[in-house]
Amino acid sequence: MGPEELAIIMSPQFINATFRAGEDWYYGMLERTQEANRLAQHRHSFEVANARYAVVNHQLLHDAREQNAKWKAFANDLVRKHDDYAVLARRLLDEEIAGRKAETNAKRAVEQQLADEKSRSADKDNEIAQLKQDWNWFSNTLDTTHAALTAEQQKVAALQAENEKLRATLSAAESDRQRLHEDNAAFLSAADHFEQKCKDLKSDLTRSQQVLHEEEAEHLNLSHDLRDASLVNEALSSAPLLALSLMEQTHALWAAQGKPSMMEHSLGSHYRVDGHPLTVREYLWFATLMREMAAHHVPDHLVSAHCPVAQRGDFLTRPVTIQEKRPD
């Protein structure tokens, strides 16, 4: 539907004409209905009125169908025109968008080309500036090289003069070297003699240190033996009184029980190292002495020497068994 059709449809004249046609149709239908009602009121002309009513009703239905068909055709025409207008508008919009895109792409291409030209121009400017810098550097390097060459020539002349001096010095040094060689031979001979004396002194020192270590070890052993002997003497000094007190307590216990003294009875649980059983008196003595030696930290070999009993490990904790009769 084009703009002209829309303008016609939306115009006041078209709208008023449409409303007037609707009103005419409505009032005509109302008038025919009233006519049918009047005819129906007359009983004597019922058949005529009925026939006319049927005709009017048929006419109304026919008119309504025609009007409905007209309105439907009109609405379909409006829809078709609207669809045509939408297609046209869409096509025009697509063409406008495509044109704008093409214009934008062309503008971007021109801008990109301009940027590339600027970049190439900047690169060329940089190359020219770099060439200028390289030329300045080469010129400065050439001047520096020329100055260095002049200085080197002066150094060569100075080195030649210095070389002459070195030759004279080298000749004198050769004479000194010969003299030093002779002195060195004499020094080496004296050094060999001194080294031999050092070896002899070192050997004497080693022997002296060995003797000293042996004497220190012997002194340490004697010191330990003296300390152990002192500990044994302390234990032997305190053990008799304790053993005597223990024996007296044992006598008193037996007397309180009405038993005779069993000090000389043999034990069935404790023996000497030679296998003979200990007497009660010997057991009390050795038990007291072993406790005192343990209290004074007497070495184990001295405890064994002064307490010659069998199974000394559990001697003090082993239950005591006294034989009732003395051995014959």
Number of strands: 2
Structure classification: mainly alpha
Weakly predicted, low-confidence segments: none
**What general form does the structure show?**
flat
Order of helices and strands: HHHEEHH
Percent helix, as a range, is over 70%
Radius of gyration: 74 Å
> Mean pLDDT, nearest integer?
81
Distance between the termini: 158 Å
Total DSSP helices = 5
- Report the β-strand fraction as a percent range: under 5%
Largest sheet strand order: 1-2
Taking the sheet with the most strands, its summary is: 2 strands, antiparallel
Keywords:
single chain; 328 residues; mainly alpha; two-stranded antiparallel ribbon; flat
What would you note in describing this structure?
This protein is mostly helical. The chain has a domain at 3-114. The chain contains five helices and two strands. The chain has helices at 3-9, 12-41, 46-256, 280-295, 300-306, and strands spanning 266-271, 277-279. The protein has a two-stranded antiparallel ribbon. A hairpin with a 5-residue loop joins strand 1 and strand 2. Helix 2 packs across helix 3 (46-256) and helix 3 packs across helix 4 (280-295). The longest helix has 211 residues, at 46-256. It is flat. The protein starts with a helix and ends in a 22-residue tail after the last helix. The mean pLDDT is 81.
